[in-house]
Amino acid sequence: MTIDEIRDNFALLDEWDDRYRYVIELGRMLEPMPEEEHSSANKVQGCASQVWLSRKLSHNANGEPVLSYLGDSDAHIVRGLIAILLTLVSGHTPREILATEPIAVFDELGFREHLTPQRSNGLRSMIERIKADARETLAAST
Question: Is 0.90 topped by the overall pTM?
């Protein structure tokens, strides 16, 4: 699924109850995270729910590093937020990730008004973790 497909589907849903159900469904479609990836090293600090992000480093045809992620949470809605976030960043180079503004996309979808402050803080923590990974990977590759 692409972010444009998610945007289009959001546009079809007028009620936030329907949008929440859609976000939860996106979370159900996340690639399963192996149990061994639910480690303290992969746990994202600053989230009210338990959240794990594991990264895999590969290289594209140009030899540039590419970061791919698996994510999981013990909260259904957060799993959906992770699914949207990973649609934006997973499978991209560190430079592409650093040029992406996920909060702007979440705001565009209307989440600013519909997430609790704790969920918003958790989302920012996930984004900062991914951007820190991108900065670290970029620094190591130069």
Answer: yes
